[in-house]
Amino acid sequence: MTVIHKSPSGSDVRGLTRRGLLARAIAAGATFVVGGGFVAARDAAWAVETAALKPETMAVLIQMARDIYPHDRIADRFYAIAVKAHDTPEQAQVIEEGVAGLNLVAQAQGFEGYLAAGWEKDRVAMLRMIEHTPFFQTIRAGLVTGLYNQKEVWPVFGYEGESFSQGGYIERGFNDIDWL
Fold it and tell me: Where are the transmembrane segments (predicted)?
């Protein structure tokens, strides 16, 4: 098992219990804890299993999703759900190669990898360098529906859902625009 964003001392995490691994990850300032077949949050109770992708790749996709569509009030677990759709045998090679390319861009910028860039502005600059690639466009396009079609995030944006079944918006507050 490895910890993304290892501490400067590069402490070894092999042979630790899950609890010990999480404790070290929190102390080291890790973004995600990556283990054999899973990615877990260091500061919340969620994890996502991987089937076709490496757990390290999934961690990059989650951070990439947050950097493409940043919302401070949306938890990482919703981004994980959104990118989980790419964890298929059909997409694995393209995604793995795309993440490897993104990590090469990060290394050219002086970072160990994409996740090692601690500042959002640095990661966004890297994404701008690859935004023309089919890999980036695939991830970005998948996030539009993968992230925003989750009913649990709708309240964050004040969206109440579809209105057709309730007679439309005209009689249901269409003109109560209090933010204008």
Answer: 21-41
